[in-house]
Amino acid sequence: MSERSAQVTIAAGYSATEWELLTGLPGRVIVVAARSGPGHAYPSVAAGLAGLDAVAAGRVFDSDLIRAVVAAIYARHDGAPETGVGPGDGADLLAACRTAVRVLERRADPADSAAYRQWVQSVGARVCRTASAVVPDAALDPADRRFLDRLGGALALR
Fold it and tell me: Which of 40, 74, 127, 130 has the fewest Cβ atoms within 10 Å of its own Cβ atom?
């Protein structure tokens, strides 16, 4: 089976709403994690780029689901706005993560589910580490640490 047909097969296992949720969640994590806050006074371009790099790294993961999600993200090249919910705030993001966990429990192979949830968490971690690094030798900001803890909980990783 070609890579393209494998991606279509994986996407076909989800409703359009579910697939939009799974493909949109990494970007929402980047936006919320990179926003200005107590630990970083302004959204960091470097943090956003680090998040995009973490998403792109999914292209080489062992998980067919993650590779299909990344391919779908990169296939959105027509400039048309997404039809789903925007990034929202932290509470919206955590609710979307909990919904994604329920979708994955129903539809995904357990290994793909775990890999996807860990990958989304790693996207957030990469953004937060980079945003906190704006100040040289700074530890992870407590607000970023709390965000990552809540993100991990919403993704059923804790």
Answer: 74
